[in-house]
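<goal> How does this chain fold?
<sample>
Here is the protein in question

***
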Amino acid sequence: MTGTRVKGSNAGPPSSRWRTWLLEGLSEQTARHPGPHAAPQPEQKGHRWWRVMCLTGVDYFSTLGYQPGIAALAAGLLSPLATLVLIVLTLLGALPVYRRVAHESPHGEGSIAMLERLLPWWSGKILVLVLLGFAATDFMITITLSSADAAAHVVENPFAPHWMADGNEWITLLLVGALGAVFLRGFREAIDIAVPMVASYLALNLVVLGASAWEILTHPVRIGDWTDAMTAEHSSPWAMVGVAVLVFPKLALGMSGFETGVAVMPQVKGDPTDTYAKPRGRVRDTRKLLTTAALIMSCFLLLSSLATTILIPQDDFESGGPANGRALAYLAHEHLGEAFGTVYDISTIAILWFAGASALAGLLNLVPRYLPRYGMAPEWTRAVRPLVLVFMAAAVLITLWFNANVDDQSGAYATGVLVLMLSAAFASTVAVHRQGRRRAALGFGAITAVFAYTLVANVIERPDGIRIAAIFIFAILVTSFASRLRRAFELRVAEITFDEVAARFVDRAARHGPLQLIAHEPREHSTRAYRSKEWEQREHTPIPGGGPVLFLEVFVRDSSDFTADVTVRGDEKHGVRRLRVSGPTVPNAIAAVLLELRDRTGQVPHAYFSWTEGNPVGQLIRFLVFGDGEVAPVTREVLRRAEPDPGRRPRVHVG
């Protein structure tokens, strides 16, 4: 079973050309993802860690476009104090967790892959599907929220034409459409774009914050007004701290970007001595990336929160106010003039739009990594363009649902971010616990508890996030299991190899004519069981007398897996010659081995089965869940679908 080759001539009907363009690169994309058919990874030069930091920074740093305004709405005059709580959680919570994730998954798999390894069988697969739902929420809301905030910067700019007034929704849809068009055409050299974009954006923010600091220092009465207003609202410093702790979950957007930072690890150059198994340089430099980004963002978050809270009236942060969703842009226009403010707006719009590109790239990396490997998505989901169309349709629906409002989407965004961080913290806790590092496990456990509290508080306060995530999870679960059911009768074996003993058995038996194989239950290990099985098959099915017989046994190692590479191992025990295989299902593995034997010997093999006792529906469920069930008819159906020519199809006999 190989990837479908889609490249070719443009000749043909329009529908064929459209399909060819839509699925371009499908087989190459299949080879680049882990699992069966995986091609050796080409040598990748990679980039310096600070350049890759800019790639993840378009997501992380772009939150400065809306985070100060969201913090002001959530905490009011206590916004700087709540932001300080957020910074503490970032540096002492999220950063250590993702430094551990970088160590445990150095090839960009992230915390989802860590949890997949922790839980066996179907429980691990279902957990991954649920986490993919939350990841989809995170990345999809990143696209729509960033585009909505970019639209707010367009509308509020004094040089914007009057016909753009109240055009947030259609401008957001236009930006989302432009993002989809870029990916449909082909997205290349993202880092080369991200580096100057992030550098200019941070430089402009430094100018705005510097001007704000000058305004505050030359008018110290503003600080007095702010502190007097805080003390008037809250009776004591302890009350202020308590309120800040209670409201900081609403500021969780300020921690977004860590999952993206781990996802881009394969782009980090590392050391010349790095190997795939031990990329020590890449892990070290990724940790530098995460730490530097967290420190830069923490400084900007605190300074921007102070500046916007002290200099902007609280009413201006409300929905429809001039600072809503664009607090720093408001200060840029107010204190540095409309020309500089417009330059700042352009830079902000660009990085917010590119943050959507970063999120979409994350989705396009995440979905093909898991769903096709589980058999829970068609093979076309490994191609970029069909997925882009699906994600863009979802982005349009979300934009219309929330009316392109930044504040309304922040709850859903925070939910996705916090669930991923909670899963990363839990995975890190389990990982260090298994290594016997008790103190580290206690520390990560405490971080896990804090993230759990933050998530619960956010969901209670803003349930829209969990509703959006539930929709994504439901859609992923339903479509995944429907796809798994539809694809259950594929071969599901990628590559078959024979060890030396198995190859010798096959070649010797083939000299006497077509191979005769008896499918045997591998748990029955005795000379009597094998002799009884052979006698039964010779009595009830037309096995030619005198010819050699091989016993074929399949062990189910993990029925939740969909595809696998298998090795056929031969041995001779209890007076019979056995071919033994491990695979995710019995009938699919037998069918694949039979086809391989046909190609190896040039003769159509014959396989002999016994009927399985039991209800047919129950046996079908056993096949779908446990990988065995009624083997004979399923093997025949798999062969029928894999080989359309009856003359070349291996024979299935049931006695």
